[in-house]
Design a protein that fits this description.
- With 292 residues, the chain is an alpha+beta fold.
- The protein folds into two domains: 4-143, 2-Layer Sandwich (Beta Polymerase, domain 2), CATH 3.30.460; 145-283, Up-down Bundle (Four Helix Bundle (Hemerythrin (Met), subunit A)).
- It is 47% helix and 14% strand.
- The protein contains ten helices and six strands, in the order αββαβαββαβαααααα.
- It has helices spanning 4-17, 53-57, 74-80, 110-116, 151-173, 177-203, 217-220, 223-230, 238-263, 269-283; strands at 21-27, 43-49, 68-72, 90-97, 102-109, 123-128.
- Helix 5 (151-173) runs antiparallel to helix 6 (177-203), helix 5 packs parallel to helix 10 and helix 6 runs parallel beside helix 9.
- It starts with a helix and ends in a 9-residue tail after the last helix.
- Pfam families: Adenyl_transf.
């Protein structure tokens, strides 16, 4: 696997030797000092170029970065299925190489750069041939930190959590596994993740990031809560599914009550009680029941 130094040298050498490329900057996890380094980190690179067309005309130019294992061109695919994309302003290549390195490379015009540069606070300039990159502050993950919820946000989250569980229960009773699973993951888990993040945030004065899709939860949850969290996942067996649902309810309840106490919000005990009883009832409701 090529080293970080080799990859940076390659990325910058390509830019230095190509007159169309006038500046280079990077964003993503490699610019975040709070993210531990590992072998799977991408190189999120942006080339600021004079024009896009000549790059698109030469489909093989990206081979200079190494032997490709797989390539994705999101803008091209979006355009092919009818979505409007301005390929004269920017274009992206997601490249995974046979040695395991990955570069997410975007090329954009100078005008495009001026409109968006620095909007992602995890941005680091790497090369600027013409001094066109605006001056920005040192990279910070402040935009990715857990945001303190308003009481209305808390109410919405708890209400959605308990309300949407009746859809999950309905799907299980009907033996509609895809519906029940997707409803659980798209609504119940979404609310759970929101509450987990808020709970972690309260312990760090909301100056912490839990990572994309909660990937750092394990680092912040105490062991008993982490063990509960792992049990919120189940297989396709309905009994196991039901077990995971009730673990999810218990975890959500514990976390939400703590968040409510910390922020002086009101926890919906009545919704919790009513829906928990409803879920227990539906779990044992015969499949040929004529009424609930």
């Amino acid at each position: 696997m090529r080293s970080e130094k080799v990859m940076y040298d390659l990325i910058l050498r390509v830019a230095e030797e190509d007159e169309r490329i006038r500046a280079v900057y990077m964003n993503g996890s490699r610019t975040n000092p709070n993210v531990p380094k590992d072998i799977f980190q991408d190189y999120d690179i942006v080339y600021v170029v004079t024009e896009i067309a000549s790059f698109l005309e030469d489909e093989d130019w990206i081979n200079i970065f190494g032997d490709l294992l797989m390539l994705q061109e999101p803008d091209k695919m979006d355009q092919q299925i009818g979505l409007k994309r301005d390929l004269e302003r920017s274009y992206g290549y997601l490249m995974l190489f046979t040695d395991g390195n990955r570069i997410d490379l975007h090329i954009e015009t100078i005008d495009s750069m001026i409109n968006g540069y620095g909007s992602d606070k995890l941005t680091v300039p790497l090369l600027d041939k013409d001094n066109i990159l605006p001056i920005i502050q040192h990279p910070t993950d402040i935009d990715y930190r857990v945001k303190k919820p308003s009481e209305a946000m808390f109410v919405s989250c708890t209400n959605n959590f308990w309300w949407c569980l009746q859809n999950v229960a309905k799907g299980i009773w009907r033996d509609e596994l895809p519906y029940a699973k997707l409803m659980y993951e798209d609504t119940t888990r979404a609310s759970l993740h929101e509450m987990v993040s808020w709970w972690i945030g309260t312990g760090y004065d909301f100056e912490v990031s839990t990572g994309k899709m909660g990937k750092y939860y394990k680092n912040y949850l105490p062991e008993p809560y982490w063990e509960m969290y792992t049990k919120t996942y189940s297989d396709g067996d309905y009994e196991n599914f039901w077990d995971s649902i009730f673990v999810t309810c218990e975890l959500f309840r514990n976390l939400a009550m703590d968040v409510a106490n910390h922020l002086s919000f009101s926890y919906p005990f009545e919704d919790d009680k009513n829906m928990t009883e409803f879920l227990k009832h539906v779990r044992h409701l015969p499949s040929d029941a004529k009424e609930i």
